[in-house]
């Protein structure tokens, strides 16, 4: 997608602090972190949300989670991290390219806000 922020980051057109790269995924630091570690893991292909990604590319969905674990481990949080998908505007999704939030480094409450 020509106007997709995350597609532009994946393509290297917009700079980001890249944390981990695989054949199917790119992980980078969130620009508005909500925890000491707040990364986004995105598929290289443009898919609008988590459900669409699971339907279209289940192996890539699994790789998002594996990449998230690698990012958390590399940041010193191998056992305590939160993974979050926001699907749809009502759930807080603001960039409509599937992405997984990886948060760690502080205590989290439940339910989230």
Folded structure, characterized:
With 113 residues, this protein is of the alpha+beta class. The chain has a single domain (5-104), classed as HIT family, subunit A (2-Layer Sandwich). Helices cover 27% and strands 21% of the residues. It has 3 helices and 5 strands. The protein has helices at 5-10, 50-56, 58-74; strands at residues 18-21, 25-29, 37-43, 82-84, 100-104. It has a 5-stranded antiparallel beta sheet, with helices on one face. Helix 2 (50-56) crosses helix 3 (58-74).
Mean pLDDT comes to 96
Strand content: 15-25%
Question: What is the helical fraction, as a range of percent?
Answer: 25-40%
At the first level of CATH, what is the class?
Alpha Beta
Rg from alpha-carbon coordinates: 13 Å
Q: Give the SSE order as H and E letters.
A: HEEEHHEE
* Poorly predicted segments: none
Q: What's this entry about, in short?
A:
The protein is of the alpha+beta class and 113 residues long.
Tag the structure with descriptive keywords.
113 residues, alpha+beta, HIT family, subunit A, 5-stranded antiparallel sheet, 5 strands, catalytic activity
Sequence-ordered SSE layout with sheet pairings:
Layout: H1 5-10, E1 18-21, E2 25-29, E3 37-43, H2 50-56, H3 58-74, E4 82-84, E5 100-104
Antiparallel strand pairs: 1-2, 2-3, 3-5, 4-5
Helix pairs in contact: 2-3
């Amino acid at each position: 997608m020509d106007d997709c922020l995350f597609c532009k980051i994946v393509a290297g057109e917009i700079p980001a602090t890249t944390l981990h790269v695989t054949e199917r995924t790119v992980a980078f630091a969130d620009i508005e972190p909500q925890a000491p570690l707040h990364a986004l893991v995105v598929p290289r292909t443009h898919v609008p949300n988590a459900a669409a990604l699971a339907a279209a590319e289940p192996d890539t969905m699994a790789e998002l989670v594996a990449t998230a674990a690698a990012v958390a481990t590399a940041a010193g949080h191998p056992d305590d991290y939160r993974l979050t998908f926001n699907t749809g505007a009502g759930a807080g999704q603001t960039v409509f390219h599937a992405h997984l939030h990886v948060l760690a480094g502080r205590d989290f409450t439940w339910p989230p806000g």
